[in-house]
Design a protein that fits this description.
By secondary structure, the protein is of the alpha/beta class. Helix content is about 40%, strand content about 20%. Strands 3-2-1-4-5-10-9-6-7-8 form a ten-stranded mixed beta sheet, sandwiched between helices. The longest helix is centred in the N-terminal third of the chain and has 22 residues, at about 60-80.
Length: about 290
């Protein structure tokens, strides 16, 4: 069986501006800590973004109180995390009004060469489930890379090993250039993880071809890497277990969307990885 996939690399990884969405929960604070680490390693500018999604039915006085409290929380975060920026730069702050996921994606897309970082499972008395209920919408609609960080993550840790799943499809190759550039920036190695949920040998041949293509790219770019294979009917759980066993620091995936609705939402596999991955997940759309 002959397989011929052309590896058409997409545009370069854009990371001159890191935008961190916050709802002042533990999850979003871990995202900010991760954003600071990323900025220190990539010399990118850092922006902290809060979206005021309070009801338009609030009275003027109540609305002013919400905005004042939001600004106070932003000031606290900047005071805590700005000294951790090794570049000596400032944390820029922005407040936008509207639907959370839409304002997050619009801000990122209007900021040149940006990456959006956000926490998951955010639960606070200030704004309940602000991040948690919007993460999947952002991943599904944003035309920029999105990094999600769980509240349980050790956010101060540098990225030294990246997990890069590779399946049998041509779409899986579209994240390769961004992954290699990020690995080079962070001096990290990559674990290529061949995944075959079906277990079929015909499918495995496509997986092997893709693995060889990506491994050749990494070798040419002098990126340290290893190649491993997993076959499982619960591929999400298998990826999570492998990420743990390899003590990885970042998982890079291609966004897969369900097509039941017009706009689509992340597939069940995507949701499983974002919800349960022990490390941050960088989601990249196939058309980026």
């Amino acid at each position: 069986m002959q397989v011929s996939y052309d590896l058409k690399l997409k545009k370069h990884l854009d990371m001159k501006n890191i935008i961190v969405g916050t709802d002042f929960s533990l999850g979003s604070e871990k995202a900010l800590s991760f954003g600071v680490m990323l900025a220190n390693n990539t010399k990118a500018d850092l922006t902290l973004l809060w979206v005021d999604d309070s009801s338009s039915e609030l009275a003027t006085v109540e609305y002013q109180e919400v905005r004042k409290e939001g600004q106070e929380e932003i000031d606290k975060l900047i005071k805590k995390y700005e000294p951790l920026l090794k570049t000596g730069g400032n944390i820029n702050a922005k407040i936008r009004k509207g639907k959370t996921y839409r304002e997050l994606t619009d801000c990122a897309e209007q900021t040149p060469e940006s990456v959006l970082v956000m926490g998951t499972h955010g639960v606070t008395g200030f704004q309940k489930y602000w991040i948690g209920t919007n993460a999947f919408r952002v991943i599904a609609t944003a035309n920029v890379p999105v990094i999600t960080v769980r509240a349980s993550h050790n956010a101060g840790k540098n990225i030294k090993r990246i997990i890069l799943p590779v399946d049998h499809t041509s779409v899986t190759l579209n994240k390769v250039e961004k992954a290699t550039e990020l690995a080079a920036m962070l001096n990290a190695d990559i674990c290529l993880l061949g995944i075959n949920e079906s277990g079929l040998r015909s499918v495995q041949k496509f997986v092997d071809v893709n693995l060889n293509k990506v491994a050749n790219i990494l070798a040419k770019k002098d990126i340290s890497h290893i190649v491993e294979q997993i076959n499982s009917h619960n591929i999400g759980q298998a990826i999570i277990e492998h990420t743990n066993s390899l003590q990885a620091d970042l998982l890079i995936v291609t966004v897969e969307l369900q097509q039941k609705t017009r706009n689509g939402m992340p597939s069940a596999l995507m949701q499983q990885l974002v919800n349960f991955s022990p490390v941050p997940v960088l989601s990249i759309h196939p058309n980026m």
